[in-house]
Amino acid sequence: MxxxxxxxxxxxxxxWVGLWTIIRREIQRLLRxxxxxxxAPWISALMFIFIFGYVVGSRIATIGGHRYLEFVxxxxxMMNIVNAAFLQATSQVYFxxxxxxxxxxxxxxxxxxxxxxxxxxxxxxxxISTAFGILVIAAVFGGVKVVSIPEFIFWVLxxxxxxxxxxxxxxxxxxxxxxxxxxxxxxxxxxxFVGGVFNTVSMLPPWLKWLAWGNPFFYFINGLRHSMxxxxxxPEPLGIVLSLTFLVILSAGVWRLFAIGYGLRE
Amino acid sequence: MTPALRVxxxxxxxxxxxxxxxxxxxxxxxxxxxxxxxxxxxGKSTTIHCITxxxxxxxxxxxxxxxxxxxxxxxxxxxxxxxxxxxxVDVFATPVQIVDxxxxxxxxxxxxxxxxxxxxxxxxxxxxxxxxxxxxLSGGLxxxxxxxxxxxxxxxxxxxxxxxxxxxxxxxxxxxxxxGELNRDGTTILLTTHYLEEVERLCRNIxxxxxxxxxxxxxxxxxxxxxxLEAAYLGATGAxxxxxxxxxx
Lengths: 266, 249
Prior knowledge:
Strand order of the largest sheet of chain B: 6-7-8-3-9-10
CATH topology of the largest domain in chain B: Rossmann fold
Structural class of chain B: alpha/beta
Shape of chain A: elongated
Helix content of chain B: 25-40%
Number of helices of chain B: 10
Number of strands of chain B: 10
Shape of chain B: globular
Distance between the termini of chain A: 36 Å
Number of strands of chain A: 0
Number of helices of chain A: 10
Radius of gyration of chain A: 20 Å
Order of helices and strands of chain B: EEEHEEHEHHHEHEHEEHHH
Helix content of chain A: over 70%
Largest sheet of chain A: none
Order of helices and strands of chain A: HHHHHHHHHH
Strand content of chain B: 15-25%
Largest interface: A-B, 39 and 43 residues
Oligomer: heterodimer
CATH class of the largest domain in chain B: Alpha Beta
Largest sheet of chain B: 6 strands, mixed
Strand content of chain A: under 5%
Radius of gyration of chain B: 18 Å
CATH superfamily of the largest domain in chain B: P-loop containing nucleotide triphosphate hydrolases
């Protein structure tokens, strides 16, 4: 008969070991697919930085006193942070549901908050790893500048969390792999491209400028760009308030989905 | 004494409108080895899913050792171990990872977890397969991993949903022996199975569920009296074996 005594924590307020397990499990899963999770965005960013920042950029005059490479890097970085956060959250939630191993968490003494925070921590890990790799690549081309580290951290974290939460909602809603990509194809990619990754709003044709101002990606990219090179096209507080509002609404929404067991419990 | 499990007037209606469990009530006393029988689609797995939190309940109540499994779900979950019918695992993970993650979810600290995993791997003869991905294991080995995972937290109530489906005779006999030991050591066991021989050998009390309701419940001896468990089961579920049906026609 078994002899090992198993001590379960008595009346847990926070199941710290459980929370850490959610995070390390997902990191272990990510490390099983390093090419897809890390190398792919780094190579893609390398191409963008090399072609747009270095080759094309060398023939473009400065924008707001900054080299084109410096101008375009925050946009490329933001695009990759958004993608990393969204893909991480959708794949983590959807694969758990698809392979049914979400039931392991459901039968365990884990709270909704621990499940959500654990998932978001893995999202932030992937976003930061992706961003760090891109910064290293950009440094090789001499394009990295960060004028405000706190502001830079704010934008990386807040945008990761926003798209992590959005990805979780999609991961809970999706019934098949096709549906996982819907938001990315029809919303994230187009809006990030017209949100000022490669250009300023003033470069857009007049009829498209209104779209930039109504595009949340514009504020994310603008915020990150401001933190890196000090270039700003929109009032900074507006971007911050808008982003925090998104964060609060999405947090409440995802919390509600977990509480009612949407997509999780039968 | 507080029962290990008390299910009162449980009702589960799926979003599709299907009534899977319809006013089911059940009490399993602490230390019991309880057989929960019924035909496919009777509501056994749904009831288990409601007890363990995989499914939400529509109405009714569930208590595990007196703890409300809905309102105080975290406390209730700590007391339960589940070996489900389906292999609900990350098939690319190894047996050690699968059991380790589950132990972590239960809040078991690393040093204890390591010892417990080593013990379970040895107990279920998985030591030669520690680094193989789950998907590369045979059906019997997969079942052992699922059982080891269910036991990582030393549950007071162990729920086994068809644990011997698809396993060979040797493992089945070994498992029966092990479950008997666990039960003698105080673990309450709720077992669903289609093997009546398993129930005859292991269980002390039995409930038969059909169309979401308990249709018969009592000590095993009552079921064995007369024409035996099979006849009692068929009588309770209203089913007829082929040869009886053919004879009647």
